[in-house]
Design brief:
This protein is α/β, with parallel strands linked by helices. The chain contains nine helices and 22 strands. The chain has helices spanning 41-45, 125-134, 141-145, 193-209, 230-241, 325-328, 386-403, 409-419, 457-464, and strands spanning 3-6, 12-14, 59-64, 86-89, 92-96, 104-109, 113-115, 135-138, 153-156, 163-168, 171-175, 186-192, 217-221, 223-224, 245-249, 268-275, 330-332, 347-350, 354-357, 380-383, 426-432, 439-445. The strands form six sheets. Strands 3, 4, 7, 10, 13, 15, 16, 17 and 18 form a nine-stranded mixed sheet that branches. A four-stranded antiparallel sheet has the order 11-12-1-14. Helix 4 runs parallel beside helix 5, helix 7 runs parallel beside helix 9 (457-464) and helix 8 packs across helix 9 (457-464).
Length: 466
């Protein structure tokens, strides 16, 4: 049986932590939503700013690594249903491989058991995924150091009024160092097929039992493996029949093809798109002195109507072209899994350099976000992966369900695909500030990478609103 892991690419960049005086408290302690927070390039790329829907009355179950134990430093407490959270775990035993005595292979599995939903120590992945859906509180001294002294702000989520149910199906494991072998023990985060299936069944049980009332439910699965075994397929099928909407990442294997459950046709699968304005002040323009503009991801306008001048940012910061103009500013990430024969890639969503809370390893090693990033590995990262694309679509599905709670899986998928903007095969020039000599890189893709195109939230919601 195959193990499941996060759909996270290796393009993860830390924020440098610089010492500065900590403020007294989280200024957003009493907040119940991020709906009035600042928009970002990725919310603009899918046209969230044109909507009034916020996902109110909808549950989104995040099947992942769980949430950090100090999640309320980032998210409004009312937005996370901790009393509904759960986790699932199996003990694994390893032995030397038959072909390579220094390769540790699984030899036995313990019984499946239910645990709590608190995050795996080895990864903050689930917290970052949830931050795209809910939004988050933000303050970084690294911005100050580069000339952008932002006050503490809230970043708006794609569906800031949904209620997240944290379900931990990816846990910490140690791959042992085998006797006589030089390789050290490895600390890894993954889940078994049974753990993932149990998480899906748990959410379906909540739905069928009436524990959530008549509220619609979305499952976000920013994870994947190389095959779909029966126990997980049965759980997926049961959930869809029960009216649960399931969204999954396509995977980060590029031309090697999609992972599962994303490649399973009934599931809404999501590939990762990027923006040509990354690390620049204006798309297509080289940054001053060949360096980078670090706050390109944050829009200078707050909400609708725009109010320029809220933040010390260039006027066009985070501004993505409207309408069909978005096509010329969108590319498909090279790591995003392509569709092979027999696989179904549905849509694209932002999944390149997505900003969010992601304390380093171990994920429990941190200072509060309002301490301006003092000490340790930092509180925020730019993360790339189809893991980051999937929650954009799960959140858009929640916006659709707010207006039309009776939508089925097939109806949500159809509306998302029918209203997506076609991204033809092609190439784009994207600024890469992290190569040996910062400069433009060419990123290319074929038709097998695009699905039906880039999700457009406003059009998708309009298509299903009675």
């Amino acid at each position: 049986m195959k193990l499941r892991s996060t759909a996270l690419s290796l393009s993860l960049v830390a924020v440098v932590a610089l010492a500065s005086p900590a403020t007294a408290r989280n200024v957003f302690d009493d907040a119940t939503t991020t709906a009035d927070g600042y928009h970002t390039y990725d919310s603009d790329q899918i046209d969230i700013e044109h909507l009034t829907q916020t996902g109110e009355g909808v549950y989104v179950a995040v099947l992942d690594t769980g949430l950090l134990p100090y999640w309320s430093e980032y998210f409004p407490e009312e937005r996370v249903a901790t009393h509904l959270g759960a986790g699932f775990y199996q003990t694994l035993t390893f032995k030397p491989g038959a072909a390579d005595a220094c390769e540790a292979v699984e030899s036995a599995r313990g019984p499946l058991r239910q645990t709590n939903w608190v995050s795996a120590r080895g990864s903050s992945h689930g917290t970052h995924v949830a931050s795209t859906i809910l939004g988050y509180s933000y303050d970084s001294s690294a911005d100050d150091a580069e000339g952008y002294p932002l006050p503490p702000i809230q970043v708006r989520g794609i569906a800031p009024d949904v209620t997240v149910i944290p379900v931990k199906v990816l846990a910490d494991y140690t791959i042992p160092r085998l006797k006589g072998c030089d390789d050290p023990s490895q600390q890894v985060v993954f889940g078994t097929d049974e753990m993932v299936a149990a998480g899906i069944d748990y959410v379906t049980d909540l739905k069928e039992s009436g524990a959530l009332g008549d509220a619609p439910v979305v499952i976000n699965m920013s994870l994947g493996g190389s095959e779909l075994v029966g126990v997980e397929q049965d759980a997926l099928d049961r959930a869809i029949v029960a009216g649960v909407i399931i969204v999954a990442s396509a995977g980060n294997e590029g031309t090697e093809g999609m992972g599962f459950p994303g490649a399973y046709a009934p599931v809404i699968s999501v590939g990762a798109a990027g923006w040509t304005g990354e690390w620049t002040e204006e798309p297509g323009e080289e940054p001053d002195n060949g360096f980078r503009y670090r706050l390109w991801w944050l829009k200078n306008e707050k909400g609708t109507p725009p109010a320029p001048g809220d933040l010390p940012l260039p006027a066009g910061s985070g501004e993505v072209a409207e309408g069909l103009g978005v096509v010329a500013e969108t590319y498909v990430a090279d790591f995003s899994s392509r569709e092979l024969e027999g696989q179904q890639l549905d849509v694209l969503a932002p999944g390149s350099w997505v900003r969010g809370p992601f304390p380093g390893t171990p994920g429990y090693n941190h200072l509060p976000w309002w301490s301006s990033g003092q000490g340790g590995p930092g509180n925020y990262f730019y993360v790339g992966g189809t893991s980051m694309a999937a929650p954009h679509v799960s959140a858009v599905a929640a916006l659709m369900l707010e207006d039309n709670p009776a939508l089925t899986q097939a109806q949500v998928e159809s509306a998302l695909k029918d209203t997506a903007v076609d991204i033809p095969a092609g190439s784009r020039q994207v600024w890469d500030p992290f190569q040996a000599v910062p400069g433009w890189s060419t990123i290319s893709w074929a038709e097998d990478a695009t699905g039906e195109g880039l999700v457009q939230a406003d059009e998708a919601v309009a298509a299903v609103t009675p």
